[in-house]
Amino acid sequence: MLLITLHHFSLWAQGTRSDRLILQGKVGDAFKSLIYLPLGDIGVYIFVMITGFYLGGKVISNKKSIKKVLMIYAQLYFYNLLFLIVGLHYHLPLNNFPKLSDPLNPFNRIPNVMMSIFPIAFNHYWFVTAFVLLMLLTPYINQVLIKIDKKSMELLLAILIISNGLFPLLNNNVASETVGLGIVVTSYVVGAFIRRFIPKNPKMFLIGTLLLFTNTALIYLVAYYDIIVLKNRYIKIYTGLFALLAAAGLFLIFINFKPNYNFYINNIARHIFAVYLITENIFIINPLWKYFTFDQVTNLYLLNVYGFLSVVVIMIGACTLDILRSNIFRICHFQFKSVTNILEYK
């Protein structure tokens, strides 16, 4: 989540600065201002690999899958309605993204409102939409992953990685875009494959290190070329195959560490998904990140230090808010059970 939010700092808080620097011919400075941009999808893929690592080898019932989806949806809907109320109260723009408006579709005339009320149908957050669909599919995906042998799973992975990781980089989105359900399913299967077939040993640690640094370096080299030479900050190669391989490398490094349980880390982890839900809310994106543009800072190295610290503060604030939300849910659940028990007793 740290990598994802750092990516959003570069994308949303520094995007305008980088565009301005490119127009001024200061392309080197533009690259420095977007230094965290390639990290986002590495973080996304790791997030899903963790899910595949722990769930991919289990029998998941439809009931359990739907329960998981409802838990995600309840958290999602809480923030959607909260920020919709905030947005309407403070007269925030109802259409931050005009290109989403379709004159032939009246439901898209006010996408901020419709996306807040129907977040999955209108794809408010691409990752949440893809993750919810993944959770609904896990009972069926896992039936395959549990029974399949190593050779067949390697072939399955090859098909998924090529169609969902490589093809989108070639503008072939028939299986998935560079951000979509296909690449999320691929990451899930990678996590499950690592759990079943990859041993924990120094060799795998070295392979993971090689995958991480080689692919991250390649992504940054292409980003450098796109910004410096092509003068374009919308870099596609940081998504898809190379980010997937970098994420797999980082994952291999960490699974070779000695397992350790920490109550505080686990407790924070329960609320970390809220960082994404809050910072990427359609009403919050612009008002939030405009406070972290740091336009007065001209030293770009210092800018990125400020950006890193700001992201840490944002994550702490979002987790704190979600702890409050969790307590509200707990109180409401307790009250509902109490009323239900009283009615059943009568």
Automatic annotation (TrEMBL):
Which GO molecular-function terms appear in the entry?
acyltransferase activity, transferring groups other than amino-acyl groups
Can the keyword Transferase be found in this entry's annotation? Answer: no
Q: Which keywords does the record carry?
A: Membrane, Transmembrane, Transmembrane helix
What residues form the membrane-spanning segments?
34-55, 76-93, 113-141, 153-172, 178-198, 205-225, 237-257, 269-289, 301-324
Query: What range(s) does the Acyltransferase domain occupy?
Result: 1-319
The yes or no answer to whether the keyword Membrane is present is yes
- Which Pfam families is this protein grouped with? Acyl_transf_3 (PF01757)
Question: How is this protein named in the record?
Answer: Acyltransferase 3 domain-containing protein
Q: Which organism is it from?
A: Companilactobacillus kimchiensis
